[in-house]
Each structure stands twice: as structure tokens, then as C-alpha cells.
Amino acid sequence: MENYRKSLTDAIEDNKIELIAPSREYTENEIVWMQGYNQALQDMLEDFDNDFENFLNEIIKAQLN
């Protein structure tokens, strides 16, 4: 699970850097696509964090019973 989270955070950071200091010239459409892709990755990370926390809470509850 931690590897998945790290992969997401690495991809988000790489994309942010690419938008700030592009390795090549991008068209406006490509920039918009990259911004949307980065937002989707951030949403996935947020969902993962929320779902994983809920998952851990359920395991703890099950073990207490």
C-alpha cells in the first residue's frame, strides 16, 4: 500500500515540476491535459488516504470484538 501511495506522490511531484520547468515546449492543449491529469492523481491520492484510513479503522474494530 505504501508503494502505491509513494508512486502517486512521486508522479504528482514530477508533473508539478514539469509544468513549472518544462523539458520541452508544450501546446496549450497539452498543458491543460497535464493539469487535469495532475488533478486526477491528487484526487486518487486523497481517495486512497481516506479509504485506507477507513480500512484500518475497520480492522481495528474487528480485532477489538
Topology readout:
Blueprint: H1 2-20, H2 28-64
Helix pairs in contact: 1-2
Explain what you see:
- It is a single chain.
- Helices cover 86% and strands 0% of the residues.
- It is an all-alpha fold and 65 residues long.
- It has one domain.
- The model has no long low-confidence stretch (mean pLDDT 90).
What is the gist of this entry?
By secondary structure, the protein is mostly helical. It has helices at residues 2-20, 28-64. 0% of the residues are buried.
What is the succession of H and E elements? HH
Number of helices: 2
Write down the Rg. 17 Å
Question: How much strand content do the residues show?
Answer: under 5%
Kindly report how far apart the N and C termini lie.
Answer: 25 Å
| Major sheet description | none
Shape: elongated
Structural domains: how many: 1
Oligomer: single chain
Percent in helix: over 70%
Mean pLDDT: 90
Tell how many strands the DSSP assignment holds.
0
**Spans where pLDDT lies below 50 across 5 or more residues:** none
Structural class: mainly alpha
